[in-house]
Design goal:
By secondary structure, the chain is of the alpha/beta class. Helix content is about 35%, strand content about 25%. It has one domain (about 1-245): TIM Barrel. The model has no long low-confidence stretch (mean pLDDT about 90).
């Protein structure tokens, strides 16, 4: 199970996400960098902990602004691999992001108006370059339309699998930064059982190293999104290396 550090990007700074209340997010304070700017922070984590593959949520883009392709490019040029959620709703924005050097693009349920766009993205860029994010809030799917209001998370996962999704994030934004423990374990187990071809990533609310070890032993997740525990220095470079080598 790979440890994937989170960069929540807002107004050019990395911020600390708590419970999905994005308006209140403040620049992060980390022992690994004196700056909350994304490049020094990411390179600090890379140098100290050996982390070089990040999940980046472009909160400005998710709020309707153009994706921050210049920041993606600067991170890529610094040797950072990126999985980026920027509320992608145009193929041209995806093309720009890939040209900027991102590794994979995330198509998130919270900004997805219909599955036709997901289908177009998969056929244009290939399943290996795309991650579908099944976004939840307290277990309920988060979507900009009412098209999914009567569908369970497993129903939506099934539709994504039918389209050819091979990589999926399952994230409950209400748990992010709370330290309350992973709340998506049950749906992750269901998706893993029904669609074993899909590589799953989850996170949000991870509260301890012991929880991480248990999740790794269960062998359900290919990746785990972590922010708070990293900056609290609860994870060592040797532990991260061991977990990443097992993935």
């Amino acid at each position: 199970m790979k440890i994937i550090p989170v960069l929540d990007l807002k107004e050019g700074r990395v911020v600390r996400g708590i419970a999905g209340d994005r308006k209140s997010y403040q620049p992060i304070k980390s022992p690994f960098s004196e700056s909350s700017l994304p490049v020094p922070l990411a390179t600090g984590l890379s140098n100290h902990l050996g982390l070089n593959h990040f999940y980046l949520a472009d909160l400005d883009a998710l709020a309707g602004h153009p994706p921050n392709s210049q920041i993606y490019e600067a991170l890529s040029n610094a040797g950072i691999r990126l999985d980026v959620d920027a509320g992608f709703c145009k193929l041209s924005h995806l093309e720009q992001a890939f040209e900027a050097g991102i590794d994979r693009a995330i198509i998130a349920l919270e900004t997805l108006t219909d599955l036709d766009f997901l289908s177009d993205v998969l056929s244009t860029f290939g399943s290996e370059k795309i991650i579908f994010s099944l976004d939840l809030r307290q277990g309920v799917p988060v979507s900009p339309t009412n098209g999914w209001e009567n569908r369970t998370p497993l129903d939506i996962a099934a539709e994504a699998a039918e389209l050819g999704v091979l990589n999926m994030i399952i994230l409950d934004v209400a748990a992010v930064g709370t330290g309350s423990g992973l709340t998506t374990r049950s749906i992750c187990e269901q998706v893993a059982t029904n669609f074993p071809e899909i590589e799953l990533i989850s996170g949000g609310g991870i509260h301890s190293v012991e929880e991480i070890e248990k999740l790794a032993d269960q062998d359900i997740l290919a990746g785990l999104l972590i922010a708070s525990l990293i900056h609290q220095q609860k994870l060592t470079a040797s532990m991260i290396k061991r977990l990443n080598e097992q993935s």
